[in-house]
Amino acid sequence: MPTSTIPTKEQILSTNKEAEPLLSFFDDLSDEEKMKLWKQLTTLNLSDARQWFIDSEEQRAPASAEDLKPIPHSHHFNQSEMHQAVLDELWNKGMDAITRGEVCAIVLAGGQATRLGSSQPKGTIPLGINAAYGDSLLGIQAAKIALLQALAGERDHQDPGKIHWAVMTSPGTEEATREHVQKLAHHHGFDFNEQITIFSQDEIAAYDENGDFLLGSKGSVVAAPNGNGGLYSAISAHLPRLRAKGIKYFHVYCVDNILCKVADPHFIGFAIANEADVATKCVPKQKGELVGSVCLDKGKPRVVEYSELGEKLAQQKTSDGKFLFGAGSIANHFFTMDFMDRVCSPSSRLPYHRAHKKISYVDKNGEIVKPEKPNGIKLEQFIFDVFELSERFFIWEVARNEEFSPLKNHQSVGTDCLSTCQRDLSNVNKIWLERAGANVTASKQVYLLSLVSFNGENLQELRHREISDEAIESDHTINKFFVH
């Protein structure tokens, strides 16, 4: 790139005076490094970021015990307690919406797999399962979408419904994610340009404890995605196009949950039947678990962190032995298009929350410092901070062992890691097989192909059949259902 196109330090400061401390080593950089730093500075909105840091200091006052109440039973439904006839009705209502092309599944896929020891986007890393094309979390999710569309088309010989798939990435994951999703779309016959929307959430500069910005190298600013609540500002520009396509309902979920039922007809049908503008899937909280609790704060729905709930309320139980504040949030939500239009408007801005982190940085001598304890602050927005704007809010409680197993940690941690995800997916598949009347005797982990069954359906051929290691390997009437 010609040197003449690279702005001088003075030119940068004329439009971005907040950048001055970040240009300390500008003269030491190559032309390519100068251009890269300048481009990054144009995306970070440093003047607003300075104000965000100040605003984030004034966090919401902790709720008092008197303010917090569980979501009432009239708005909290447990799937396991519902009659099959009711579940079938909800499934059909959700499938009707899919058949009409009214459903958009949004996957939050902005994170990299650094905690897993990989530089790839988390949604693209190999799982070692091969249950779906791509052998990735996004691969399993694409297969579920393809299967739902096929199931929608089988109903009374209707035209196959189209589920729109929106993928939220971040600047660090967009290119690799786009390439991976393009391959998945081609494999499943999705129209990439018409059926898939890939968009990137914003990044926000990180700070030291005094609110000053940090250099990660002499030519780059430390920045990170602005949290899952960055969805609303990131997708706002795409909403008119999605509305024009006929989208009325959104299912929003995190990419890292291997058991996620993407565009779940039961969940969507439940929300539509109750005229919900917002609904959230929850799992029963376990003792000592630190996930947030979905509850009411002064009559408004929100997610309250364990630290704010306090030990006494966190341990309080109902007459049937369940935790009173036991609706554990798993970042799995339903929104209507009308609600999204309202919260994505420029006048509706979510607060930023502080997270204290260990942040490597370049000191005034140009040396990289790697701290041993938290030394800085990253700001993030939370997706559930819009709950309090809901006018009809509902909880859909599901079984943890069938719907929630996140991939968050390195294998060495032993929880929420690749081996636990593999185990939990195999266990769900065994549950489905046993419900269908199969006799599972296999000693190894058992994986159904993702295109075979969404929720345990289509397994009637295996009724009264023994699912052994040998049968999965060599019996063609059985192994067509399985990874082998």
From TrEMBL:
<keyword id="KW-0808">Transferase</keyword>
<protein>
    <recommendedName>
        <fullName>UDP-N-acetylglucosamine diphosphorylase</fullName>
        <ecNumber>2.7.7.23</ecNumber>
    </recommendedName>
</protein>
<dbReference type="GO" id="GO:0003977">
    <property type="term" value="F:UDP-N-acetylglucosamine diphosphorylase activity"/>
</dbReference>
<dbReference type="InterPro" id="IPR029044">
    <property type="entry name" value="Nucleotide-diphossugar_trans"/>
</dbReference>
<keyword id="KW-0548">Nucleotidyltransferase</keyword>
<dbReference type="InterPro" id="IPR002618">
    <property type="entry name" value="UDPGP_fam"/>
</dbReference>
<comment type="similarity">
    <text>Belongs to the UDPGP type 1 family.</text>
</comment>
<comment type="pathway">
    <text>Nucleotide-sugar biosynthesis; UDP-N-acetyl-alpha-D-glucosamine biosynthesis; UDP-N-acetyl-alpha-D-glucosamine from N-acetyl-alpha-D-glucosamine 1-phosphate: step 1/1.</text>
</comment>
<dbReference type="InterPro" id="IPR039741">
    <property type="entry name" value="UDP-sugar_pyrophosphorylase"/>
</dbReference>
<dbReference type="Pfam" id="PF01704">
    <property type="entry name" value="UDPGP"/>
</dbReference>
